[in-house]
Design brief:
Blueprint: H1 8-13, H2 16-49, E1 55-56, E2 62-67, E3 80-89, E4 94-96, E5 103-106, H3 112-117, E6 126-131, E7 151-160
Length: 161
């Protein structure tokens, strides 16, 4: 029995550049899947090693609500937040803490992990976010943060407006 997936003439008539692009796209997709699995394992190992009671969001963000806070704020697109925070690499080194002072930001201007995680708490709340690179700074370095870093943030929310 002979299986034919494509007619021979399909490849002969197909532009070689288009074929190369398709093959590169397929290779990139497989590489991205492997990187995602490696990152997921790195995060789950970190959570287990540090006994963190974290929940996985559908986005891939892991979070632990330390204090839920109080209120029923719904976080419209133009929300401004006032927070104290600390950002660490998984080795525990602190790369930013806002100078230990409260900082005010437009939520929409922050990394995607914060836009997903902070609305899970209310004023007076505290949350820990374990951030895969895809929801942080990706493959780019950002100051002291190397590319493809998993990040660990603790955020205390003191005000929303």
């Amino acid at each position: 029995m002979k299986f034919i997936f494509f007619k021979k003439s399909y490849f002969c008539g197909m532009n070689k550049l288009k074929l190369l692009i398709v093959m590169l796209f397929i290779a990139a997709a497989f590489t991205a899947c492997k990187e995602d699995k490696d990152t997921e394992k790195q995060i789950t190992d970190f959570i287990a090693e540090h006994n963190i009671n974290a929940t996985r969001d559908d986005s891939g963000l892991y979070y632990q609500i330390i204090k839920p806070g109080s209120g029923t704020f719904t976080y419209p697109a133009n929300t401004r937040i006032t927070i104290k925070y600390e950002g660490r690499l998984l080795d525990g080194s602190v790369f930013d803490n806002g100078g230990g002072k409260e900082q005010t930001f437009n939520l929409a201007d922050l990394i995607q992990a914060w836009r997903i995680g902070i609305p899970k708490i209310q004023k007076g709340g505290e949350i820990r976010l374990i951030v895969p690179p895809s929801l942080g700074y990706g493959s780019s370095s950002a100051g002291p943060i190397p590319g493809n870093s998993v990040l660990d943030f603790t955020i205390q929310l003191s005000n929303t407006q």
